[in-house]
């Protein structure tokens, strides 16, 4: 745990894992971009959210602010991270159902449906962090099956962004990428009713929580190139 001028940083294996600014849900960084696609859903469709890779709860804090009444399930493999988040980052105040365990096993065993699933899973240390071998396949198809009709799947990526983007375009008809100024991350949001990037940008601009981060975000719609999404729940 590191206290900086702007807030508290959780560093795990040399990686910037979470950020907490007491008194404010926003981070001005990657976690704002991860959470932003939730605004593509109307408030009545923000009832249940799954976060794979809960970390210190940075994304969960924004989700709780955007959807105060939703049920949030957070899956985290590292018990020490959860302990640190509870002690230093006020995780318990977010009322998250915390599941300690492997995200892949959770996707295989959980039978609930979610309006939004945020996948923020990495392995490795420092500059060598990367997606585990089960992402994007079979992890993202399993996540798609856990989506409620019309739900969205969001993946935080680094060097594997092109591979994940190609795979998501085979699963969903709409994919939007979000780049964050000064970060290597690329956030990929996908859904059957996500809408194009300009529509999501307008939603962020209208939101009192995330609009301050909008100048640091670059959003674009990824073209499908004739591919059709396969499988998954039907839209309503």
How many strands appear in the DSSP assignment?
11
Structural class: alpha/beta
Radius of gyration: 16 Å
Q: Give the full name of the CATH homologous superfamily.
A: Vaccinia Virus protein VP39
Q: Helix tally?
A: 7
CATH architecture tag: 3-Layer(aba) Sandwich
Query: What is the class in the CATH system?
Result: Alpha Beta
Intertermini distance: 44 Å
- Which whole number gives the mean pLDDT? 92
Detail the poorly predicted runs.
227-236
Under CATH, the topology can be stated as Rossmann fold
Q: How is the quaternary structure best described?
A: single chain
Order of helices and strands: EEEHEHEHEHEHEHEEHE
Question: Could you outline the blueprint of secondary structure elements for this entry?
Answer:
Blueprint: E1 2-3, E2 8-12, E3 15-20, H1 30-35, E4 48-52, H2 58-66, E5 71-76, H3 79-88, E6 97-100, H4 103-109, E7 114-119, H5 139-145, E8 147-157, H6 161-171, E9 174-180, E10 186-191, H7 197-206, E11 217-222
Parallel strand pairs: 4-5, 4-7, 5-6, 7-8
Antiparallel strand pairs: 1-2, 2-3, 8-10, 9-10, 9-11
């Amino acid at each position: 745990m590191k206290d900086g001028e702007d807030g508290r940083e959780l560093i795990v294996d040399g990686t910037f894992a979470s950020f907490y600014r007491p008194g404010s849900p926003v981070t001005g960084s990657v976690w704002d971009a991860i959470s932003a696609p939730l605004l593509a859903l109307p408030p009545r469709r923000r009832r249940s959210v799954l976060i794979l890779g809960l970390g210190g709860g940075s994304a969960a804090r924004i989700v709780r602010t955007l959807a105060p009444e939703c049920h949030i399930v957070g899956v985290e493999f590292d018990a020490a991270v959860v302990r640190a988040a509870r002690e230093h980052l006020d995780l318990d105040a977010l009322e998250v159902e915390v599941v300690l365990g492997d995200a892949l096993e959770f996707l295989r065993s959980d039978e609930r449906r979610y309006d939004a699933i945020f996948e923020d899973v990495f392995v490795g240390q420092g500059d060598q962090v990367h997606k585990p071998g089960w992402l994007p396949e079979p992890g993202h198809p399993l996540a798609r099956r856990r989506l409620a009709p019309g739900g969205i799947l969001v993946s935080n990526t680094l060097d594997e962004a092109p591979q994940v983007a190609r795979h998501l375009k085979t699963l969903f008809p709409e994919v939007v990428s979000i780049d964050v100024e000064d970060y290597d991350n690329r956030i990929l949001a996908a859904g059957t009713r996500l809408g194009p990037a300009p529509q999501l940008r307008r939603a962020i601009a209208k939101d009192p929580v995330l609009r301050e981060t909008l100048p640091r975000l670059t959003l674009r719609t990824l073209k499908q190139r004739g591919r059709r999404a396969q499988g998954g729940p039907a839209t309503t």
